[in-house]
Amino acid sequence: MSGLGDKLKGAAQEAAGKAKAAVGNATDDPGMTSEGHADQVRGQGNQFKGDAKGKVNDVIDRVGDAVNDNKRRNP
After folding, report:
1. What is the Cα gyration radius of the chain?
2. How many structural domains compose the chain?
3. DSSP string spanning 6-39?
4. CB of 71 closer than 8 Å to CB of 57
5. Which residue range(s) make up the domain with 48?
6. Which of 3, 16, 59, 69 lies in the 20 to 30 Å Cα band around 42?
7. C-alpha distances in Å from residue 10, one per residue of 57, 73, 75
8. How many CB atoms lie within 10 A of CB 9?
């Protein structure tokens, strides 16, 4: 999955987790509340993973650009 895909999936997981935790609180269901909190954390983790993938891809692109520039200057 792409970095953007991970970020979107994470945002959806986090939102669903917040909703689940709210329902758990409203219905006095500690299990559902805990599951909701866990989903939120998983969502945040996926968003972090997406950010990391994006940054790694940016570095790879910059290195590739630098190599190509060097090849053009020094054929």
Report:
1. 20
2. 1
3. HHHHHHHHHHHHHHHHHHHHHTT-HHHHHHHHHH
4. no
5. 3-73
6. 59
7. 19, 43, 45
8. 17
Tokens 């020094």 sit at which residue? 74
* Residue with token string 């669903």: 16
The residue to which tokens 């006095």 are assigned? 28
Give yes or no for a contact between 45 and 9, defined as CB atoms under 8 angstroms apart.
no
Give the number of other Cβ atoms within 10 Å of residue 68's Cβ: 10
Q: Which two tokens stand for residue 75?
A: 């054929």
Name the burial class of residue 13, with classes exposed (0-12), middle (13-18) and buried (19+) by CB atoms within 10 angstroms of its CB. Answer: buried
Give the distance from CA 63 to its chain's centroid: 24
Position 70 confidence tier, pLDDT thresholds 50, 70, 90: confident
